[in-house]
From TrEMBL:
Lineage of the organism: Bacteria, Bacillati, Actinomycetota, Actinomycetes, Mycobacteriales
Organism: Corynebacterium propinquum
SUPFAM superfamilies: NAD(P)-binding Rossmann-fold domains
InterPro entries: NAD(P)-bd_dom_sf (IPR036291), ODC_Mu_crystall (IPR003462), ODC_N (IPR023401)
Name of the protein described by the UniProt record: Ornithine cyclodeaminase family protein
Domain of life: Bacteria
Length: 320
């Protein structure tokens, strides 16, 4: 028998994650992490390994208080529609004891983290504190899959005191969309009317070619592109990126994986000196003018999952 028995590891299910931690909690945690001085440039790189029927993503990260790794499988669009496209687990370790602390449902962590990154970056551009009756927030979401719906839930959780209208855009109409949402067909005249009127446009698709261009949005629109994570794929046309204030998650990560930025750079439509960083925007180190559209592009970094995994484990533990 060993002299010391390590602490028991928690298993935290999908339902436990959402019972303990709201999408608004996730947004606040990421913003607090950046405002407390965390530098994403020092994070570990994500690895994507081809496997027989998809990809294997490996996302390690470390802080003084914890370290962990998210392991995900990602299936191509349309592969085994009866299963989630993304599956996996998050293994969290304690930074002091070096013992495994929790094994957390990976889909729950991912579906909290991804929209939390989106909204945590653009929060200040959407918050309306001008009066007791803030203006309605009009949101257009490309994609009706898990990430599109998770983004809708995060917007609603983060801005509970605003009137919010959410319109989903996709090629085919989903049959299980909640009654409070509207759907229009992507590419239609009505879709362009929706995006032109939107304060926030969220692109959460598997598209490899642009689905949104400059003339599709207003000069005051905030656009987030999250669907693609390879240099060859993008959701935003170069004319939109070139005419916008562009924020990127991290320069290194974006130039490895962010086709929405890599392709306009290669075309000469954009310069790296034009790019602002997520950390600088959230921490207030740079101020963003509202004289043209704002684009935020990210592909996901391991530190974001670690920050949320540690907070989730601590909250579930505190609840007993």
């Amino acid at each position: 028998m060993p002299e010391h028995t390590p602490p028991a590891r928690q298993f935290i299910s999908h339902d436990q994650v959402y019972s303990a931690f709201t999408p608004a909690d996730a947004v606040a945690k990421l913003r607090d992490t950046l405002r407390n001085g965390f530098d994403p440039a020092g994070d570990q790189s994500r690895s994507a390994i081809p496997v027989e029927n998809g990809e294997f993503l490996i996302m390690p990260s470390t802080t003084p208080s914890a370290f962990g790794i998210k392991l995900l499988s990602v299936a191509p669009p349309g592969y085994q529609d009866d299963l989630p496209r993304i599956q996996g687990s998050y293994l969290l370790f304690d930074g002091t004891t070096l013992s495994p602390k929790a094994l957390i449902d990976g889909i729950a962590v991912t579906n909290l983290r991804t929209p939390a990154v989106s909204i945590s970056c653009v929060y200040d551009f959407l918050a309306d504190g001008s009066s007791e009756s803030p203006a309605p927030l009009h949101v257009a979401i490309f994609g009706t899959g898990p990430q599109g719906r998770a983004h809708a839930a995060t917007v609603e959780s983060t801005f509970p005191h605003r009137e919010i209208s959410i319109t989903f855009l996709s090629r085919t109409e989903p049959h299980d969309l909640e009654d409070r949402y509207t759907w229009v067909q992507a590419g239609s005249r009505q879709a362009r009317e929706v995006t032109r009127a939107a304060d926030l446009v969220l692109c959460t698709t598997t598209a490899s070619e642009p689905i949104l261009a400059k003339d599709d949005v207003s000069d005051s629109a905030v656009i987030v592109a999250v669907g693609s994570h390879s240099p060859q794929a993008r959701e935003l046309a170069s004319d939109l990126v070139a005419s916008s204030t562009v924020i990127v998650e991290d320069m290194g990560a974006t130039l490895r994986e962010g086709g929405d930025i890599i392709q306009p750079l290669n075309e000469g439509a954009l310069r790296t000196s034009d790019l602002l960083s997520y950390a600088d925007v959230v921490s207030g180190k740079v101020q963003v003018a509202r004289d043209k559209p704002i684009v935020f592009k990210f592909t996901g970094m391991p530190w974001e999952d670690l920050a949320l995994a540690e907070a989730i484990a601590d909250k579930v533990s505190a609840q007993g």
